[in-house]
Write the structure tokens for this entry.
Amino acid sequence: MRLRKLTASLLLAAAFATTVAAPAAFAGPDNNIAVIGVGEEPTTLDPANGLSGGDIHFLYTVYDRLLDFDPATLEPLPMLAESFEWTNEDVPSSSNSVRA
């Protein structure tokens, strides 16, 4: 029992020491490298087949989309499309003009 408490205390102290001693991660002009940690790796980088929730974070940073969304209202905004309009209210469909 005493050994278990001692081991737990040492592990906690080591975790605290590495957290406090670790420098802040940033990409500066001298190294220009950003290091990120992710919970899971993407299953694919093919935007047509990326169905996992973890894929979206990678695909959104790699590929442009036809439409983007306003983060405050979630209204669609043109991204690759110069403009778009809803063409049928019964069946969700749109007409898009894509930029050259």
Summary: The beta strands are 67-69, 76-78, 81-88, 93-98.
